[in-house]
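Friendly challenge for the regulars: who can give me the structure tokens for this chain first? No prize, just bragging rights.
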Amino acid sequence: MLKRLKRKFVIIVMALVGTVLIAVLGSTYVAAYQTQQQLIDEALTRAIEGGMHIRPTFGGYGQESRQLDDDNYQGGIICLLVDIDDDGLVLDISDAPVIVNMSVLYDVIDLVREGNQAEGYNEEYHIAWKSVDRTYGGKRVALADTTTSDTTLREQGIKDLQIIAIALLALFAISWWLANWALRPVEAAWEQQRRFVADASHELKTPLAVIIANTQILQKHAEIGEDAMRWVNSTADEAEHMKSLVGDLLQLARADESIAGTTPGAMRHEDIDLSELVESATLEFDAVAFEHGCELQSKVASNIHVEGDPDWIDRMVRILIDNACKYGAKDTVITVRLEKTSGRAKLSVHNFGNPIDEQDLPHVFERFYRSDKARTRGDEGGFGLGLAIAKGIADAHGGSISVSSSAENGTTFTVVL
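First reply, four minutes later:
Bragging rights claimed.
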């Protein structure tokens, strides 16, 4: 549980801070892109307005110089003007201080003529263009080399990605340290609680054994009257219930130790023939299902193996089948299915009966949780720990357990190992 809580803490922190970081750097990149596009557009417009023999200039003038020599200002971007006739033949080229690759120029001219658009951009050649119709036919095309701006934007994008990657790595390390620091008191309290439950359960076993033994002796004495024997029998029943509860608590404590990794020997690791185990448990519960007026069917695929503690897995399977038999409606079929999907073993136990309320579904695996309707102790003598033990066993084996329930489809518990 603490590991999941720690992971959630780290994920939430990284998601929040990472989203803000990406939004900030993304907005700066978009702003830079829009600024570059605006400068290119202004340079092309001013080049067309300036005429064929106005020399473009490198760099930008100050505000005062721009006002004095406005015709020469083109936003610090060198542009080339080309006059073409209706057939795409070049009539005139401006006196821009650039060397023109004629094959590239004609390719761009073809794009201008074929696209029939007033402006455009060619990513392959890194050329932006804008065209206007000439008075005497043909077009005047202004071209700007965008290699520098494209390279600048690409480098900025790479740097932004590097900053994001480094920042996220640093954030992960910091958030992990903060999670450990923040959860240290919780972890200590959880460990103390787990140890208390385990120790108390161990300590209760001896007095409970004595109580059970004494009540068994008293039950054999004929001298005890009928009224007194009722009290003895009641004590014996409650002692057995308490013994069952202590056993459940010990099982949960061992599962917690296995999940936390604090006690390496808490769980055995052996090869388990899960198919044989499930078939055996199903056969044993056939009589139990019959007593509850149900029919138990098994659909178990053969030769499915998992690694784990056979006693724990056996108890988990029996808990689920027993739970289905207890709450299955009369004259219905309880189905135990085992199959292999995506390289994992999938066990499902399905029954029809009173469905689990929707508000109870998220809590059915909580310890000592019992809903007000079908899942109460009542005559069955449950403590609300069976499903919690099943979940603890599944988690200890690196698996998962889930439940779905509705009046139409019945109730299905599914374990994936």
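The chain has three domains: 2-145, 185-265, 268-416. The longest helix spans residues 147-219. Your move, everyone else.
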